[in-house]
Amino acid sequence: PPAASTSTRRERSPDCSKRINKAKDLKLSEPLYEAAPILHGAWNFKSFAPSNAQKRDDNMKVEQYVMAYEVEQDRLRAILPDGFVSLRPVLRINSEIRYGETESVYIEFNTAVEADGRRGWLNIGSWDNAGSVFSYKRSGKAVTFTAPFLEITYTGVGVEGGCPAEKDNEGCFFLGKNTILRPAEKINSSKEFCDCEFRWKFTRDDAHGVSMGKTLPAFAAVPKIVYDRHEFTAQSAAAIPCEQVLGSYVVKFERQL
Q1: What is the CATH architecture assignment of 8-255?
Q2: Per-residue pLDDT reduced to its tens digit, 195-209
Q3: Contact at 8 Å (CB) between 173 and 115?
Q4: Which of 113, 145, 163, 251 could cross-link 191 (Cys pair, CB 3.0–4.6 Å)?
Q5: Which residues of the chain fall below pLDDT 70?
Q6: How many whole angstroms separate alpha carbon 16 and alpha carbon 79?
Q7: What is the distance, to the nearest Å, from the Cα of residue 60 to the centroid of all Cα atoms in its chain?
Q8: Domain range annotation of the chain
Q9: pTM value?
């Protein structure tokens, strides 16, 4: 719904505006799979096929770590591109270790949205270790992904569980010359809950948080504050403070290529 007439307009400070628009030179990776472009508001899906850069004769083994955290939804609304509506006050970080012909690492940053009647996740930024300087290391049950702009640790707790958002997810939108929707993967493997600690490092004031040992819900909030518009970038999203970590899990599976 539109903001009420009593909504307050709050301008960000010059320092904040400068902070969330810096460090734009990071290289984004391409999505692993091709999907259909949005043409005149209609959806016309291509086959869910691997891109040329990822074609293999066998499957890829994937160790996928997922974490979601809650933020102020009005700040999310202030950075979303036209045509996308925020579904929940949530930002999500996916981190993958991929075992194919060579081992690789991939990180993806998303938020829950609806567009053209489709509900899923909108990709804010994605990186692989071919285009960015980052790595991972293990210490017991903990796996830490480290990059110049992010450090995140997932620690398995030995309890199986699932993700409520999977029931409301048709896939992930990727912006570009044509916006594409990559359909959600069907993963049948069991998920293990994790504890999680993270910190974005585009600037020293970026979002950071620690999980509280349980999975928490996040509910859509009625618009209250109209913030100044900012670019839809990973830097802008990472500048929005974390209110709480909602949950985290790890799942191991084979991705069909």
Answers
A1: Beta Barrel (2.40)
A2: 999 999 999 999 999
A3: yes
A4: 251
A5: 1-58, 131-132, 162-167
A6: 14
A7: 21
A8: 8-255
A9: 0.78
